[in-house]
C-alpha cells in the first residue's frame, strides 16, 4: 500500500460569505440527504438556499448541473494542494500519486456522505442525471491522473481514465460503509484496485511545475 497520506482537505465551509453557487450546492445536498433525489425540485432548492428561483436558474440549468457543480468544487479542493507537497520524489510510482489524490477526494467528500448514499441509490432512476454524473466523474478522474503526472491522451490514456473511474466507483461502495477513523478499509480497497490497473499508468513522472494539460 502507498505509504503516507496527503493532508486532509476540509469538506465544509463557513455559511457566511458563501457564493450563490455554493449556497445552492449545499442546499441541494441537505435536501437530498433529508428527502431524496427523485422528488427534489428546483424550487425547493432555491427556497432552502434562501435565493430567488431566478438566481438558481442563472447558476444551474438543472439538478444534474448542480451535481456537476458539486463535483467541480470537490475537484478544486483536491487539486489545490500539490500531490507531492511541492517536493517531487523521482522514485515515487504513479499509482502512489493516484492513490493520494483519490483518498484526498474521499476525505473531501466525508461531510456529504449521507447525500451521496441517497444519490448512489436513486440516481439510476434518472437516466439524464446519471449520464451527466458519469461524464463528470470521467472528467474528474482525468484531472486526477493529469495531476499525478499520467497522460490521459490517446487510447492508453482513455483506458487509464475509465479503469481508474471504475476502481474509484468500486472503492466508493466500501467508503460509504467505512466508519473507521482513518478510513483503513477504504485505503486497502483502493490500493488493491489500483494495483490491478497499475500497468496502464506507465512509468510517468511528475510534470514540471506549471505544466498543465489542456482539458475540456
Q: If you had to describe this structure to a student in words, what would you say it looks like?
A:
The chain is mainly α and 216 residues long. The chain has a domain of 130 residues: Orthogonal Bundle (Tetracycline Repressor, domain 2), CATH 1.10.357. Helix 1 packs across helix 2 and helix 1 packs across helix 4. Helix content is 61%, strand content 0%. The longest helix has 24 residues.
Task: Quickly describe the structure.
By secondary structure, the protein is mainly alpha-helical. It has helices spanning 20-35, 42-48, 53-59, 63-79, 94-109, 113-122, 127-147, 154-177, 184-196. The chain has a domain at 72-201: Tetracycline Repressor, domain 2 (Orthogonal Bundle).
Helix/strand layout:
Elements: H1 20-35, H2 42-48, H3 53-59, H4 63-79, H5 94-109, H6 113-122, H7 127-147, H8 154-177, H9 184-196
Helix pairs in contact: 1-2, 1-4, 1-6, 4-5, 4-7, 5-9, 7-8, 8-9
Key terms for this structure?
216 residues; mainly alpha; 9 helices; 61% helix
- Structural class call reads mainly alpha
Distance between the termini: 32 Å
Biggest sheet overview: none
CATH architecture of the domain at 72-201: Orthogonal Bundle
* DSSP E strands, number: 0
| CATH C-level name of the domain at 72-201 | Mainly Alpha
Q: So what's the overall shape?
A: globular
Radius of gyration: 18 Å
Reported by name, the CATH topology of the domain at 72-201 is Tetracycline Repressor, domain 2
Overall helicity: 55-70%
> Secondary-structure element order, as H and E?
HHHHHHHHH
- Average predicted confidence as pLDDT: 86
Measured by DSSP, the beta-strand proportion falls in under 5%
Low-confidence blocks of residues = 5-15, 204-216
- So how many helices? 9
Amino acid at each position: 500500500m502507498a505509504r503516507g497520506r496527503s493532508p486532509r482537505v476540509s469538506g465544509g465551509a463557513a455559511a457566511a460569505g458563501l457564493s450563490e453557487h455554493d449556497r445552492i450546492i449545499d442546499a441541494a445536498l441537505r435536501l437530498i440527504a433529508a428527502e431524496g433525489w427523485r422528488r427534489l425540485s428546483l424550487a425547493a432548492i432555491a427556497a432552502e438556499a434562501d435565493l430567488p428561483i431566478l438566481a438558481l436558474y442563472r447558476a444551474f440549468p438543472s439538478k444534474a448541473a448542480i451535481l456537476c457543480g458539486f463535483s467541480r468544487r470537490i475537484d478544486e479542493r483536491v487539486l489545490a494542494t500539490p500531490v507531492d507537497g511541492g517536493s517531487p520524489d523521482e522514485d515515487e510510482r504513479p499509482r502512489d500519486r493516484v492513490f493520494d489524490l483519490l483518498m484526498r477526494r474521499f476525505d473531501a467528500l466525508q461531510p456529504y456522505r449521507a447525500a451521496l448514499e441517497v444519490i448512489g441509490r436513486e440516481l439510476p432512476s434518472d437516466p439524464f442525471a446519471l449520464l451527466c454524473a458519469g461524464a463528470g466523474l470521467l472528467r474528474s478522474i482525468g484531472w486526477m491522473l493529469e495531476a499525478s503526472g499520467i497522460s490521459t491522451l490517446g487510447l492508453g490514456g482513455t483506458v487509464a481514465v475509465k479503469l481508474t473511474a471504475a476502481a474509484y466507483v468500486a472503492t466508493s461502495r466500501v467508503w460509504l460503509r467505512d466508519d473507521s477513523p482513518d478510513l483503513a478499509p477504504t485505503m486497502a480497497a483502493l490500493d488493491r484496485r489500483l494495483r490491478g490497473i497499475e500497468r496502464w499508468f506507465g512509468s510517468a513522472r511528475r510534470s514540471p511545475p506549471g505544466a498543465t494539460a489542456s482539458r475540456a
